[in-house]
Amino acid sequence: MDELTILGIESSCDDTGAAVITGTPGTARILSSVVEGQGALHAPFGGVVPEIAARAHAERLDGCVTRALSDAGLTLSQVDAIAVTAGPGLIGGVLSGVMCAKGLAAASGKPLVGVNHLAGHALTPRLTDATPFPYLMLLVSGGHCQFLLVRGPQAFTRLGGTIDDAPGEAFDKAARLLALPQPGGPSVEAEARKGDATRIAFPRPLLDRPGCDFSFSGLKTALLRNRDTLMEGDALRAGDRADLCAGFQSAVVDVLREKTRRALAIYLEDAPEQPTLAVAGGVAANGPIRAALKTLCAETGTQFTAPPLALCTDNAAMIAYAGLERFCLGESDGMDLSARPRWPLDRSAPGMLGSGKKGAKA
Ligand code: KG4
Ligand code: ZN
């Protein structure tokens, strides 16, 4: 198969991205990847403000695309197609990206390929490790939480997901309740290292129910209640804070371990030739979570893979890659490509309730 060069554009949440990749499905290389985060713009509001995000994307997309092309040493006329996130996400941001891509496609005559943002995340192990289908994907970040059985470039089965918060969101909220710095994951993990995970009891939400769905919002409430009983006036003793973090984190680890065990069992039923669990998202950086998942994989003869963090978090290289896979199936879009706030990868799976500060989670 001839190598193709794809320009990718991402703007579904609070990262503006443009990237160029080249290659074929399973053997693609990243020529450039530009990501401009908007953390500082949203920080004063304690979450992503959709209108601010949309405006920032609209202002920055041109510059990101120009840089991505020049970093790759190419001009627009040398790319074969333009891939863009067409959903799910914060609609203003998605629209900014889709309009930018349509403008570029109209001006250059290049094909336009709409990409599902979640497919971008889910196909990343093929870009980074040439992981063969079928593999099991666990997406765990501040905005996503789901198991996907990835059977092909457009064949995804969702085995479960969160019904409320994403795990990263739970870590961030926990940190806020304990006056620890954001992002909460790394600071809660560091505190937890000093604490006793067995001293304070935390629930293990949804473990008593069958299936692979998660719920994390109850953990935050449990943390708040436990914190308030331990507070002396306005103060929390350092030892108590560490124990709260350790207890909270250990509950998240237990829940992720058990649900992953169940999802793996479903995936392994079909006896895949090279069984692989891929984990992506910021939460996959957590030491105890990673260790628990690696142990599970070792027990079941499953390979464990986690793309490098820069490709786990929102970026346009994954969008360009998902666009490449789709374009190679002979698919592209017209100027009627629409931006979609919700766009489940697995249409047969029931809709999830989770839709927090970072937009749709399913
Ligand atoms: O994938 P990501 O960088 O981006 C978005 O969700 O947009 O994930 C960020 C999330 C944050 O909520 C952060 O607290 C969490 O990942 N995170 C962690 C750790 N490092 C980052 N959670 C637990 N433990 C960590 N070490
Ligand atoms: Zn994402």
Main sheet: strand order: 3-2-1-4-5
Low-confidence stretches: none
Give the beta-strand count.
12
Radius of gyration using CA atoms only: 21 Å
**What is the terminal-to-terminal distance?**
33 Å
**Cofactors and ligands present?**
5'-O-[(R)-(carboxyoxy)(hydroxy)phosphoryl]adenosine, zinc ion
Q: Assign an overall shape.
A: globular
Q: What share of residues are in beta strands?
A: 15-25%
Q: How confident is the prediction overall: mean pLDDT?
A: 94
CATH class of the largest domain: Alpha Beta
The tally of domains stands at 2
Let me know the largest β-sheet.
Answer: 5 strands, mixed
CATH superfamily of the largest domain: ATPase, nucleotide binding domain
The CATH architecture term of the largest domain is: 2-Layer Sandwich
Number of helical regions: 11
Structural class, by secondary structure, is alpha/beta
CATH topology of the largest domain: Nucleotidyltransferase, domain 5
Plain-language structure description:
A five-stranded mixed β-sheet has the order 3-2-1-4-5, sandwiched between helices. A five-stranded mixed β-sheet has the order 8-7-6-9-10, with helices on both faces. Strand 11 and strand 12 form a beta hairpin. The chain has helices at residues 39-42, 50-72, 91-108, 117-129, 167-177, 184-192, 217-230, 238-268, 287-300, 309-312, 317-328, and strands spanning 4-10, 15-23, 29-37, 81-87, 112-116, 135-140, 145-152, 155-161, 276-280, 303-305, 355-356, 359-360. The mean pLDDT is 94. With 362 residues, it is an alpha/beta fold. Helix 4 crosses helix 11, helix 5 crosses helix 6 (184-192) and helix 5 runs parallel beside helix 7. It folds into two domains: 4-131 and 310-345, 2-Layer Sandwich (Nucleotidyltransferase, domain 5), CATH 3.30.420.40; 135-305, ATPase, nucleotide binding domain (Nucleotidyltransferase, domain 5, 2-Layer Sandwich). The protein binds 5'-O-[(R)-(carboxyoxy)(hydroxy)phosphoryl]adenosine (KG4) and zinc ion (ZN). 5'-O-[(R)-(carboxyoxy)(hydroxy)phosphoryl]adenosine binds at residues 13, 141-143, 168-169, 171-172, 183-186, 189, 281-283, 285-286, 312-314, 358. Residues 13, 141-143, 168-169, 171-172, 183-186, 189, 281-283, 285-286, 312-314, 358 line the site of 5'-O-[(R)-(carboxyoxy)(hydroxy)phosphoryl]adenosine.
